[in-house]
Amino acid sequence: MSLLDVDMVSHWYPTTAGDRPVLDKVSLSLDHDDVLAVVGESGCGKTTLGRLVIGEETPTHGQVRFEDRDVRSFKGKDFRAYRRAVQVVHQDPYASLNPGLTIEDALGPALLHHRLARRATVRDELVRILREVGLDATQAFLRRYPHQLSGGQRQRVAIARAMSLRPQLVVADEPTSMLDVSMRLAILDLLLSFQRERQLAYLFISHDFGVVRYFSQAGRILVMFYGVLVEEGPAEQVIQDPRHPYTYRLLQAIPVPDPALARRRQREPAEESVDSALPPVGCVFQNRCPFVEARCRASQPPLAEVSGGHRTACFFPERVPDIDHLLGVH
Ligand SMILES: Nc1ncnc2c1ncn2[C@@H]1O[C@H](COP(=O)(O)OP(=O)(O)OP(=O)(O)O)[C@@H](O)[C@H]1O
User: Could you tell me which SUPFAM superfamilies the record lists for this protein (predicted)?
Assistant: First the structure.
């Protein structure tokens, strides 16, 4: 039994101009210690997917199942257990830390509520958890407010809050995008260390393929374009051998330190058009695709297998150029 199944989920937001489709028949599955990274540009529906998984939104169509049970069916005790088992680490730590509460008041009550600590020892337990996320915490540290911490410290506290509840799944939504570059790797390594030490699954969300590449080394990558899953597979296969032109574009955008490599990239064929409006019929990527044909304008290609567990939603995957020269792989 998988831990999480997202089954043919479509989602619309109501707007004054009518319902706006944000996700279109997205399916994915996560096992108990899987890392699944979702990558795509801003606005493609990544955060919405995360909100559906943590139960903050209900899908317009399709099902989100946790341990084979429809999340919509969770009520009362079951719903609370689900909200404990699935934690979220946001881009902005202030989204999970109330600025008016000290660290002790932000983290302590949940531990007591879920009987993960006793009143007499809760402070010691909090200090232990904060040290586990790399903070040099003392009991005095517990009396600090979020604004008295640096950005990196705040994100560590937010991670401590999520991990203190011993979750089975963590949705990490752009967890490093507000941090200095120098801090990013440390936070990614911290998240990965929890995954190694506990049986923990991650749904990791980012627009930055460089970050996704680092985080998902042993996991899977799912590439989304305007609410449609266009490619998925084992991380190394998607990175070394992308078979969707959009994935190729995203990989092309990863900065490289080698100037010769950077120049070679600039000689790559340009996108046919940068029209970002969603086409009413046909492939979701057709207006940006250099390989588009009449067939692509007629229908959306289904996800089809290219090799073991690696799938792409492109009619012409063989036209996507080899990536080796872009990544400097020889
Ligand atoms: N509550 C809402 N009501 C209406 N539209 C929304 C709502 N939330 C998000 N959207 C719209 O849905 C689309 C997808 O948003 P979402 O935040 O899921 O994408 P994203 O890929 O996470 O982008 P970003 O990285 O910018 O957050 C966007 O166009 C956004 O404006």
Answer: P-loop containing nucleoside triphosphate hydrolases
